[in-house]
Amino acid sequence: MTTAQFILSGWTWNPLVLLSGACGLAIYLAAFRDRRHLGWFVAALAVLLLTLLSPLNTLADGYLFSAHMAQHILLLLIVPALLLLSLPRTTSLAVGPRVFTHPFFGWLAGVGAMWFWHAPSLCNAAVASRSVHALQTVSLLVLGGLFWRQILAPREEECLSPPRAIFYLFSACVACSVLGIIITFSPVTVCSIYTMPPHDHLGLMQTIRAGWGFSPERDQQIGGLLMWVPMCLIYLTAILAQMARWFAQPTSPAAENI
Amino acid sequence: MNEIATVLGRAGLLTAEQREHWKMSWLSTVDHKRIGILYMVTALFFFVIGGIEAMFMRVQLAVPNNTLVRPDTYNMLFTMHGTTMIFLVAMPVLFGLANYVVPLQIGARDMAFPRLNAFGFWLVPLGGILLHFSFMAGGGPAVGWFAYAPLNETPYSSQLGVDYWALALLVLGIGSVSASINFIVTVLTQRAPHMTLRRLPLFSWMIFINSFLVILALPVLNAALVMLLIDRRLDTHFFLQPGGSAIMWQNIFWAFGHPEVYIVAIPAFGILSEVIPVFSRKPIFGYEFVAGSTVAIAFLSLLVWAHHMFTVGLGHAVDLFFVASSLLIAIPTGVKVLAWSATMVGGRIRLNTAMLFCVAALVQFLVAGLTGISHAVAALDWQTKNSYYLVAHFHFVFVGLIVFAILGALHYWLPKMSGRMLSERLGKWTFWLMLIGFNLTFVIQHFLGLAGMPRRIYTYPDLPGWGWMNMVSTIGAFFMAAAALLFVWNLAASLLHGKLAGDNPWNAWTLEWAATSPPPHENFHELPPIRSRRPLWDDANPDRPDPIVGTKWKAETTSPEKNKTAVTAFIISESGFFGVLILAYLFYNATPQPGPGAHNLNLLKTGIFSLCLFASSFTIWRSEASLRKGRHRATACWLAATILLGGIFIIGQGLEYRGLFQSGVVISSNQFATTFFTLTGFHGLHVCVGLIALLIVLGLALTGDFKQGHSTALKSVGLYWHFVDAVWVLVFSAVYLLPHLR
Question: Which stretches does DSSP call E strand in B420-503?
Answer without folding.
Answer: none
